[in-house]
Amino acid sequence: MTLPSQNVIAEPQQLVKMTYREGMRQAIREAMLRDERCFLMGADVGRYGGCFAVSKGLFDEFGPEKIRDMPLSESAIAGIGIGASMNGMRPIVEIMTVNFSLLALDQILNTAGTLLHMSGGLFNVPVVIRMATGSGRQLGAQHAHSLEGWYAHIPGIKVLAPGTVEDMRGMLWPALEDPDPVLIFEQQVMYNMTEMVSATPVPVDIDHAKVRRPGKDVTLITYGSCLPKSMTAAETLAQEEIDTEVIDLRTLRPLDNDTIFASVAKTHRVLIVEEGWRSGSLAAEISARIMENLFYELDRPVDRLCASEVPMPYSKHMEEAAVPQPETIAAAVRKLVL
Amino acid sequence: MTEFKMPSLGADMDAGTLVEWKVKSGDPVKRGDIIAAVETAKGVIEIECFENGILDEIFYQPGQEVPVGNVLATISSEAEFRQKASAQKAAEPVKVPEAVVVEPAKPAAQVVQEAMKAAIAQPAVSGDRIRISPLARRIAEDLGVDLTTVHGTGPGGAIQKSDIEGAAQAKPVLAPEPVRVPEPVSARPPEVPPQAPPVEKVAPLPVEASTEPVPEVKKPTDFQSAMRAAIAAAMSKSNREIPHYYMETNIDMTKALAWLEEENLKRPIRERLLPVVVLLKAVAKSLTEVPELNGFWIDGQHQVSEAINIGFAINLRQGGLITPAIHDTDMKTLDELRDAMNDLITRTRSNKLRSSELTDSTIVVTSLGDRGVEKVFGVIYPPQVALVGLGKITEQPWAENGTLSVRKVMTATLAGDHRATDGHKGGLFLEALNRNLQEVEKL
Predict the structure, then answer these.
(1) Phi/psi of residue B220, nearest 5 degrees
(2) CATH code of the domain occupying A13-198
(3) pLDDT of A27-38, one tens digit each?
(4) Predicted structure pTM score
(5) Pick from A47, A240, B155, B338: most CB atoms within 10 A?
(6) Touching check for B294 and chain A: CB below 8 Å?
């Protein structure tokens, strides 16, 4: 396996083609090489290479000490990772999907999220927990939901959602450097997505949202797998002379109010797109913040495009129909502008 | 049938701009209903109705400036209204629905479509609510666009930013209504606008004002300067016409405050009494003993008011001052008075005063104690004949019965109109006030 950061002395500007999956694999490798306290742990991450093949090859390179297969108990995996982080290690915990992570929710919420508070500031929990989320691979009603909005409800943790290969590759290191728990939500439908990225890792800002496409007519706020779909919709709309500004939230908690508000104050119209269920969604929170702070900037009510409130269907056409798609996103923007 | 006229909402008002009708022609109204909102220099005031009946004919539309005393609408009894309506129907020839006769029948789908279009294109006004985006409303205020004239193109006919900008462009200069600037010193008698019937009402007088439009004055939306002008006019008139006399007395508040403290200990926090409630009640009670100070000087005559409606000076955060009346202050218990004041202050600061509260005050009390002022010598609000000023309560050396002690002392002042009363009456009042404040438990 050729690893650019190791074997190639790359110019900073040199671009290579990379998948979203490879972005995380490289990020894990680089973290291991950079900091000996780092190790990866999870079910099937070692000999099997990870259920989404993210860690494929790493077991051979780093061995069973660094790439640790765990028994299939999400609560135990998360709990051990939290304990290791409190004892000076920098574990990268992999949970297969967000649906399964509910078994680890007790550890994440009641331990990782609260210990700093309960210890009066004595104990940080510098754990990083990664998991796959979202639909698009026909994995049915128990493997394909987007529950990151729930995690964004919890004080004491930081929630990241890379929507590009560059972010996937660049978010892990700052997450490991963060003294508090960080959750990274990887879009399972995007693992095969390729992008041209810098051959050397680019540091990614995990505190701010990013304007992926500037525009003046309407603000489209999204993240994760809805980002590429929104970018496609924005290109379609550009041909109709509708100028869409696309904001990639990147960090779901804490939300970057400033970037959102600056955009809304410019366009006065907002569509929030996400794959979570609509009721009590992250989109609802963002909508409320806009209303609270920018009521007098709004020319239309804030609009939301979310997942249908059903368990995720298995069949392809129904799965597609249940979540936002470029066409439905474009249609929602048109309704806001025309 | 009775006429509903533009009321005078202060001695300094000669006209008001109708902001909205809260009811429409044909709606039943009853005494005390809020039926319209009028913008004056003091902000938007809700106007009450004093009759029961049906709002019949409406003579002015929102946005129009209406001189005080002009008839805004008529109020008829139900019988009158029905009679008139049927007479009107009889007089009108029965209209043949033209569309049916002239045009060939439309396919049903087209009819439905057109009906939908018409429904969508309906003016944004539904009832008394205008469908408008918050942004558009804000911009309309900035540009001075009259919302009732704007056609909304948003969903359900909602007015949005582009509609306001379009309307503002179509009418770049929105014929700024000239603000009437009171003339500082003028021997000219007040000019009443030609269409205004003579003002019969007793209390408020039209302030002298030039009816000449003055183009370079501030925008009509600039309330602060309009209010400043109104205060300037009233206060100039006062100092020009009213020969003020002033007197002050120091009042030992130790007993009153001790009583208050003890009383408040028995009460839940929301029901506690502030000193100002006790002070207002004491002023009202003292006025029952010296009624001459409670009233007006109009057309060379002293008129004593039976009702004691204390106008309490409320400072506005954005500048300026309003003295809304607390009706029948003397009849209220301390608790009722506290609730009335809380309500009044909240509504004053949110521009929700009733017209009667603006016009009915019979004497003003100004209390600047919480600003650290020890004595305040007020300027009487014409046509009233007195003003009571209350200062800060401070600890002071107090000599009594040959010994010296420290007491909590407040200076009360009285400004009196020497045309109406003499210093003797003023003295009686301050003496009564002192006595009543020594017996607050009897208030």
Answers:
(1) -65, -25
(2) 3.40.50.970
(3) 999 999 999 999
(4) 0.52
(5) B338
(6) no
